[in-house]
């Protein structure tokens, strides 16, 4: 295959040992990829590096890091000709699991060098009051789970990893007082208090909230909690942990290409805070080529 390749490397990712960067660059070069390494130092660098690579006509942009690094790199890539490669170096690597990319560092590099491009669809969120937009690959959260993302302290996350979200959720659940939200799903109106809008089947690891969602399908899959009762949040968490999320009283499942949410609630995209509703969520159909 070969081509001009930007290797965006996040040294802060859980499995990003320094010698691996040299190994990855050398391997790609040996397979005919003209490789330039770009090492991130702070949040936002991966997005800026991807923009630079696009402006310089790179054929491939390889994001080496966790899901956050990949999310950043993807932002300027939608509807562009450059293809995305992924080397999963994070703790959870949900996107790599969705795409079937091996967790092994060496196998992931080989997968990029030997696999073909496949086109995926993304989700796009737009805050209505500001017009700010951002793509998401895995899921968007409205309400409680966005509160958890917002309230999760970085120091706690460094100490206990993803379990910090469970600790934060337990604390916030006690004082949760959600506002009723209004949903417009391609003209169909409904109300609820929390929602998870999935572009992929997995949520935060192997948990499956929108288990029928797929990156290869443009539809958005939404689970809306109709009641403010805490028991329904607990049910959502329990069923997600078991990988089996059936319909239960107080929940509503919707599949569409566009979901508009009115009211006041926090929004998170792929595990990062984004803003507050009112917000429009829509499908960005077949907009990104991924090597997997």
Low-confidence stretches: none
Radius of gyration using CA atoms only: 19 Å
First-residue to last-residue Cα separation: 13 Å
How many structural domains does the protein architecture include?
A: 2
Give the SSE string. EHEHEHEHHEEEHHHEEEEEEHEEEEE
Outline the structure in words:
By secondary structure, this protein is an alpha+beta fold. The chain folds into two domains: 3-115, Probable inorganic polyphosphate/atp-NAD kinase, domain 1 (Rossmann fold, 3-Layer(aba) Sandwich), CATH 3.40.50; 122-286, Tumour Suppressor Smad4 (Sandwich), CATH 2.60.200.40. It has helices spanning 18-30, 45-55, 67-74, 94-99, 105-114, 144-151, 154-160, 163-174, 230-242, and strands spanning 3-9, 33-39, 60-65, 83-88, 117-127, 133-136, 139-142, 181-185, 188-192, 194-198, 202-203, 207-208, 220-225, 251-256, 258-262, 266-269, 272-276, 279-291. The strands form four sheets. Strands 6-5-18-15-8-9 form a six-stranded antiparallel beta sheet. The longest helix is centred in the N-terminal third of the chain and has 13 residues, at 18-30. The chain is elongated and about 55 Å long. The mean pLDDT is 89.
């Amino acid at each position: 295959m070969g081509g001009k390749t930007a290797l965006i490397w996040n040294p802060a990712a859980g499995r990003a040992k320094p010698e691996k960067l040299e190994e990855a660059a050398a391997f790609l070069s040996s397979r005919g990829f003209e490789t330039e390494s770009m090492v991130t130092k702070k949040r936002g660098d991966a997005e800026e590096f991807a923009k630079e690579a696009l402006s310089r006509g790179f054929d491939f942009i390889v994001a080496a890091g966790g899901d956050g690094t990949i999310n950043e790199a993807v932002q300027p890539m939608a509807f562009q000709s450059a293809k995305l490669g992924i080397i999963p170096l994070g703790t959870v690597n949900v996107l790599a699991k969705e795409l079937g990319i091996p967790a092994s560092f060496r196998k992931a590099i080989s997968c990029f060098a030997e696999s073909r491009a496949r086109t995926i669809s993304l989700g796009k969120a737009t805050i209505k009051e500001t017009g700010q937009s951002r793509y998401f690959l895995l899921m968007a959260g409205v309400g409680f789970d966005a509160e958890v993302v917002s309230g999760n302290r970085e120091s706690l996350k460094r100490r206990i990893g993803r379990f910090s979200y469970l600790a934060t959720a337990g604390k916030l659940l006690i004082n949760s007082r959600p506002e009723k939200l209004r949903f417009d799903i391609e003209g169909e109106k409904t109300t609820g208090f929390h929602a998870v809008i999935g572009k992929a089947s997995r949520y935060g690891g192997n948990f499956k909230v929108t288990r029928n969602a797929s990156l290869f399908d443009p539809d958005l899959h939404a689970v809306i909690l109709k009641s403010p009762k805490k028991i329904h949040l607990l049910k959502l968490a329990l069923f997600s942990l078991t990988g089996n999320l059936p319909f239960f009283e107080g929940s509503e499942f919707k599949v569409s290409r566009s979901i508009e949410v009115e009211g006041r609630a926090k929004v998170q995209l792929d595990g990062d805070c984004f803003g507050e509703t009112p917000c429009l969520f829509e499908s960005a159909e077949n907009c990104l080529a991924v090597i997997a």
